[in-house]
Description:
Layout: H1 3-121, H2 126-156
Amino acid sequence: xxxxxxxxxxxxxxxxxLKPINARLDRIETRLDRIEPRLDKIETRLDKIETRLDRIEPRLDxxxxxVKENTNFISVLLHRTEEIDAQLHALSSTVDKLCGQVNNLExxxxxxxxxxxxxxxxxxxxxxxxxxxxxxxxxSIRQTNQEAELFRLxxxx
Length: 157
């Protein structure tokens, strides 16, 4: 066999061997041709998503600022509520104390009234009656003032 025949035979063998490879490459190329438009669509969709994200980012920043502002506002409100609760507790204690004092005054007034009754029954002197009456008036005024203060505190609550 001559060199030329050998070359022709080799070419023929190589071409036969390359046919399945070429066919496979053709199939791969066809598949790539089908994939390429799909990739273009995906790229377009990704561009749209990126655009939307670019629009969302400033809104998110704005919302974060609003959330921080609202959180600070809520903290201030909670602190103020705690202060008001403390003041209310103090007022409640004061009202309770005043109620006790009013009750004591009522007892004292009743005792004085009983004493006045006893004095009248025992024919007390005008001076004794005048002194007891003055004490009753003082206690009555104190009671009225404390009742007014108690009423004012209850209204403030």
